[in-house]
C-alpha cells in the first residue's frame, strides 16, 4: 500500500489526482501531518509526501530503522514539478515510484542514487504495447541489475541498457502469441500486416473472426497487428472498417493496379473480375514487402493473409549547432535520446555525451573517416536500429547528411534535424550581415578543385552577394583565402566590412569586425568563418549591417 500525505491545498489536489489514478494501491492519511507520517510510515510499504523534503526528513528521522525495513519515500513539491526519491531508492522501490508518480502528475522524477540507469525510458513508454512483469523488470533496470533483450524481430527501439548475456530479467520483443514468463516483459512491435478481402456486405464478425483465427493458428499476437490492408475498392467496406476498429488498427488501401503487380502464391479469377486484381488479401499484405506467414484463407465472404514486415531502421541526421548547449534545439536533444546508436566525430560526441541515455551505443571516430562514418550509420539503420548521425552546426551543411543519404536506399526511414549553422551563429554575433542575398562558400579544395571554387567566388563577387567562407584556412591550406579575398576586392572597395568569427558560441569564442583592405589572413584558422559584406554592407556602431533593400539605401544616400 502507498500512503499519501499532504499539508496544503495544492498538495491535497495533487494527492487526490494520484489517489484517483491508483485507487487500489493508495491510502490517504489525513489529520495532523506529524501523526499522519508516523502512522503511514508504520503501515505502508511506500509513501508519497506532498511536502518539502526538509519537513519529511525531520519527521522521519526518529522513525528510521534501516534499509531493509524502511518504506520507500517520494516527496512531491508544492508546484508538482518534481517527484523526489528521498528514501529507499532501490530496496523500497522509491526510484521506480518517483518515475511512476512523475508520469501521473507530469512531475520530473529526481533520483540521486548512484546508478546511471535512472535516465531510462519506462518500458511502457517505448511506444509499443507491453505485457508481463513491467514493474519487476523496470525495477531491475533502475537498480542496475542485468536485463537481457531477447529480440525475435527487429525494431528500432530507443536505448535501454540491456545486458550482453542472459540475465534473470528479460525483455522479449516478439509478435508471437506467447505468454510472459516470470521476470519477463513482452514488447509487441507492430510487425504484422493482415491483408483482407471481402464480398460486399461481409459481416464484421466474419472478417474479424477470420483474422483472429488466422493469427491464432499461426501463433501470432493480435497486439502486433499494424494494419489491415486491402484494395482501394474496399476502402469503405463496413465489415473491414469495423474489424479494423475493433482491432484498433488503421485500414490501408492500395490500387488494383499496384496489387496486380505483386507476386502471390494463390492468385484467383474471382477478385480479378470483381476488383481488377488476381489477389487482394495476399497482395495487399505483401505489397510493401515482408514474409508471408499465413497464405490466403477464406470464409464464406472474406479472405485474409498475414505478413511479417520487420521494423525499418531509422536514421536521424542531427545538427548540434555551433557549440553552445542552448543553441542545440530541443528536437535535436530528443533525437539524441531516441537513438540507440550514435555515430559521429569524437569531438562532437564529447559535446553531447552527457545527454545520451544509458544503453546508447556510441560509434565515434576521428577526423577524416567521413565516408566510413556515413556507411556505418546507414549500415546500423539497415540492421533495424534507431541511429543518430551527428554533425556540428547543421549536419547538412558541408557535413555528414549528403554522404549518408547518398549511401542510403529507401529501406530505412530518414529524419533530418536542422541545426544553427556557423554562418548564422557568426552573423548573429556580427550584427545583421545576411540581411540581403548571401552565399556560403567552402574554401576547402580537398573535395572540390580550386578552379571550381574560384569560379564560384568570382560569380558571388559579380553578383554582389554577401559571402561567408567556411573552412577558410588551415596550416596546410593558406593561400586560398587571400586569393578569394582578392577576387572579391576586384568588385568591392577596401572599406567593405568583413567579420571574422572564431569558435562562435564556444567558451573561447572571439569576433572581429575589419575590412577587406585591412584583414590579415594569418589571423584566420579552421575554427573560423569569414563573412564579407556586399557593396551596401556598413559598419554601424561596430555592427555589420547589410540593408534589406537597396531602395532603402538609395533613399538614405
Ligand atoms: N556543418 C558545419 C560546418 C562544417 S565545415 C556547420 O553547419 O556549421 C567546418 C567549418 O565550419 C569550419 O572550418 C569553420 O569554418 C566553420 N565552423 C563550424 N563551427 C564554427 C563555429 N562555432 N565558429 C566559427 N566557425 C565554425
UniProtKB/TrEMBL annotation:
Keywords, alphabetical: Cobalamin biosynthesis, Methyltransferase, S-adenosyl-L-methionine, Transferase
EC number, as in UniProt: 2.1.1.131
Domain of life: Bacteria
Sequence ranges assigned to domain Cobalamin synthesis G N-terminal in this UniProt record: 36-116
Involved pathway(s): Cofactor biosynthesis; adenosylcobalamin biosynthesis
Coiled-coil intervals: none
Pfam hit, one: CbiG_N
Domain Tetrapyrrole methylase: from-to ranges: 314-519
Domain CobE/GbiG C-terminal: 192-306
Gene Ontology molecular function terms on file: precorrin-3B C17-methyltransferase activity
Enzyme class: transferase
GO BP annotations listed: cobalamin biosynthetic process; methylation
Protein name as it appears in the record: Precorrin-3B C(17)-methyltransferase
Organism field: Streptomyces lasalocidi
Amino acid at each position: 500500500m502507498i500512503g499519501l500525505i499532504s499539508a496544503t491545498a495544492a498538495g491535497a489536489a495533487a494527492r487526490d489526482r494520484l489517489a484517483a489514478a491508483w485507487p487500489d494501491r493508495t491510502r490517504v492519511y489525513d489529520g495532523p501531518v506529524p501523526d499522519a507520517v508516523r502512522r503511514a510510515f508504520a503501515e505502508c510499504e511506500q509513501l508519497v509526501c506532498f511536502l518539502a523534503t526538509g519537513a519529511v526528513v525531520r519527521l522521519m528521522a526518529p522513525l528510521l530503522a534501516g534499509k531493509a525495513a524502511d518504506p520507500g519515500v517520494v516527496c512531491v513539491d508544492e508546484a508538482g514539478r518534481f517527484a523526489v526519491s528521498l528514501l529507499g531508492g532501490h530496496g523500497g522501490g522509491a526510484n521506480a515510484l518517483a518515475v511512476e508518480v512523475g508520469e501521473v502528475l507530469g512531475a520530473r522524477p529526481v533520483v540521486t542514487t548512484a546508478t546511471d540507469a535512472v535516465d531510462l525510458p519506462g518500458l511502457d513508454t517505448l511506444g509499443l504495447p507491453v505485457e508481463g512483469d513491467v514493474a519487476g523488470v523496470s525495477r531491475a533496470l533502475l537498480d542496475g541489475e542485468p536485463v537481457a533483450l531477447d529480440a525475435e524481430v527487429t525494431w528500432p527501439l530507443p536505448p535501454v541498457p540491456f545486458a550482453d548475456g542472459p540475465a534473470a530479467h528479460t525483455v522479449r520483443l516478439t509478435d508471437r502469441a506467447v505468454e510472459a514468463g516470470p521476470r519477463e516483459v513482452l514488447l509487441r512491435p507492430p510487425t504484422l500486416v493482415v491483408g483482407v478481402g471481402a464480398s460486399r456486405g461481409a459481416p464484421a464478425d466474419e472478417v474479424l473472426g477470420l483474422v483472429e483465427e488466422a493469427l491464432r493458428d499461426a501463433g501470432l499476437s493480435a497486439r502486433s497487428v499494424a494494419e489491415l490492408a486491402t484494395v482501394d475498392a474496399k476502402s469503405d467496406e463496413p465489415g473491414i472498417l469495423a474489424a479494423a476498429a475493433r482491432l484498433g488498427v488503421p485500414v490501408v488501401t492500395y490500387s488494383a493496379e499496384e496489387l496486380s503487380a505483386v507476386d502471390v502464391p494463390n492468385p484467383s479469377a474471382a477478385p480479378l473480375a470483381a476488383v481488377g486484381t488476381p489477389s487482394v488479401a495476399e497482395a495487399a499484405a505483401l505489397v510493401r514487402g515482408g514474409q508471408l506467414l499465413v497464405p490466403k484463407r477464406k470464409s464464406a465472404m472474406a479472405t485474409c493473409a498475414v505478413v511479417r514486415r520487420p521494423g525499418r531502421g531509422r536514421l536521424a541526421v542531427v545538427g548540434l549547432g555551433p557549440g553552445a548547449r542552448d543553441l542545440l534545439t530541443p528536437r535535436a536533444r530528443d533525437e539524441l535520446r531516441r537513438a540507440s546508436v550514435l555515430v559521429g566525430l569524437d569531438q562532437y560526441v564529447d559535446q553531447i555525451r552527457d545527454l545520451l541515455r544509458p544503453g546508447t551505443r556510441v560509434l565515434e571516430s576521428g577526423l577524416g573517416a567521413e565516408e566510413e562514418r556515413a556507411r556505418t550509420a546507414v549500415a546500423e539503420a539497415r540492421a533495424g536500429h534507431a541511429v543518430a548521425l551527428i554533425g556540428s552546426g547543421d549536419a547538412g551543411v558541408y557535413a555528414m547528411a549528403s554522404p549518408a543519404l547518398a549511401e542510403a536506399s529507401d529501406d530505412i526511414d530518414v529524419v533530418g534535424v536542422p541545426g544553427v549553422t556557423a554562418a548564422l551563429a557568426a552573423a548573429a554575433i556580427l550584427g545583421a550581415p545576411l540581411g540581403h542575398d548571401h552565399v556560403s562558400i567552402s574554401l576547402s579544395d580537398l573535395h572540390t578543385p580550386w578552379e571550381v571554387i574560384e569560379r564560384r567566388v568570382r560569380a558571388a563577387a559579380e553578383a554582389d552577394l554577401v559571402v561567408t567562407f567556411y573552412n577558410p584556412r588551415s596550416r596546410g591550406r593558406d593561400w586560398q583565402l587571400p586569393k578569394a579575398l582578392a577576387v572579391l576586392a576586384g568588385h568591392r572597395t577596401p572599406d567593405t566590412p568583413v567579420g571574422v568569427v572564431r569558435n562562435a558560441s564556444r567558451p573561447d569564442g572571439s569576433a572581429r569586425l575589419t575590412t577587406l583592405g585591412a584583414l590579415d589572413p594569418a589571423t584566420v584558422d579552421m575554427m573560423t568563418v569569414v563573412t564579407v559584406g556586399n557593396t551596401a554592407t556598413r559598419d554601424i556602431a561596430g555592427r555589420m549591417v547589410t540593408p534589406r533593400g537597396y531602395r532603402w539605401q538609395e533613399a538614405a544616400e
